[in-house]
């Protein structure tokens, strides 16, 4: 697994967590 693959995987996970967090707090907007 290359460094680019690891960085890409971490970015995707962080993006998913951010989207889920935004959806869970959507009632505030």
UniProtKB/TrEMBL annotation:
Q: Which InterPro entries match?
A: KdpF
Give the GO molecular function terms: P-type potassium transmembrane transporter activity
Q: Name one Pfam family in it.
A: Potass_KdpF
Protein name (record): K(+)-transporting ATPase subunit F
Highest taxon, organism lineage: Bacteria
Instruction: Say which species the protein is native to.
Output: Providencia stuartii
User: Which terms in the GO cellular component ontology are assigned?
Assistant: plasma membrane
């Amino acid at each position: 697994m290359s460094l680019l693959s690891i960085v890409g995987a971490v970015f995707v996970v962080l993006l998913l967590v951010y989207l889920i967090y935004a959806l869970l707090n959507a009632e505030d907007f």
